[in-house]
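User: Assemble these into one structure.

Assistant: Restating your components, then the assembled model:
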Amino acid sequence: MPSPAISVRELEKYFPPALTGWRALTHPMARATEKALVGVSFDVKENEAVALIGSNGAGKSTLLRILATLIIPTRGQATVGGFDVERESADARRLFGYHTGGDEGFYARLSAGENLAFFAAMNNLSRADTRQRIETIAELMGIQNDLSRQVRTFSTGMMHRLGLTRALLHQPSILLLDEPTRSLDPLAAAAFRRLLKDELVRKGGATLLFASHTLSEVEELADRVILLDGGRLIAFDSPRKLCSATGTVTLEAAVSSLVSHLVPLQDRV
Amino acid sequence: MSTEPAIGKVAAFFWRDFAIARGYRGALVLETLEALFGVATFYYLSRFVQSPELNSELPAGTNYFAFALVGFAFFDYLSVSLSAFDSSLEEARQNRTLEALLVTQTSLAVIIAGSAVYPFFALAIRTCVYLAWGALLFGFRPQSANWLGALVILLVSILAFAGLGILSASYSILFKRGNPAKWLVIGVSGLVGGMMYPISVLPAPLQMLARLIPVTYSLEGMRGALLAGAGWRELFPSIFALLVFAAVLIPLSFAVFSWALRRTKITGTLTHI
């Protein structure tokens, strides 16, 4: 049996409570008591597309940030491509591309091409590879004619596509995307979903773990769905099986049913 | 990571910052004029405070203008060292590029080193502008200067100061704003480091304190090399002291910064402003 692309075991994350005034000085050392994730376990197979869904504060972004080596878990273990995200974070970073739909993080005074070339250098791409990769992905994203424009002149949607281009530059085999179509117009979002499903997952063989609030997007893209609520994994199955297990016909109805009962599906089976 | 990509990455940081600075050409012109005002201020101050008592306290063969100009120009290296690292971190947090950098295949050490290269380059240019204004308009004549000695003093000073800068950045990454350590180091160094006056005029306890901070050795060595044409034998004590500071501060600062970064990854405050 092939090893999973992403493996999460009994993952827990607690944050220190927010402190104000002089007590804020003790925040870096404060005891972590605010629950974000509790006992989350799942595997994502190679070349599988898995969606993370759940209400705001359910723990989706925290989970993705742990896998992206930006947050250290309190307990449990997570691996990406077989590498532990805490102890082998540098190896894990070679394998994944990470992108959040909101915070693009570019140098506004540099052109899009200069920004991409800089981040390509940070990902060990040679100059020749950089040029070729930027051309290829920029064309896929529809920004090939805007590479010489300063990023500060970009619209939100353009920035978003640029962020996705950056995440794909080093040809990652695993994609961690936090709300990947947020702030894209409907046509661009549909085009991006096609790109993800057809080019990256089907043809490119990439593994996809993405968070989304758009259930139609989840139904279109995801082989399986992880439902988080209050930091706990409530369900993990294909959209079709979630519907049949809850006796519903739409994913939205299935999610409503699961969240209203708040009983882990695996406990009920 | 091999040396070659690390050097390439540091170069990428340099070109990134150079390209950004190029977009603010007006600021470059204003900074050049600002340097002229600073040098002129020292020149007229030096004419005002000229006295046999003061001259007797200065190193042989120098005058107060040259003494103060070198002190002012090279004290900037301490200020920039202390702010270069946490300013670049602050900027990366503000424009949200820090997370984007931390998920790349670039080590923290390279990110820190790379972020500081351009600020030091810009400072070197600024120092040359200061000295050039002094030479062109106000009679600053470092005729017997040991330029190679000055360069070595400068490089070992940067190493020693960089350690303090990375420690300062560690505070900044943990607590985000306000940095008492930075202001303490600059305040104490400004008071006892010999920027504007020789440390021999200080009371004995402050002279002892002056021997515990790197800027004292940096300014002594720089003035010796530039103003008195000191040879390697005379410069050795300053170079050795600065190397000792660097040998202690650089590993310590990296350890502290790694710990601070780990704490922020635990508390989830890496990108908080």
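DSSP finds eleven helices and no strands in chain B.
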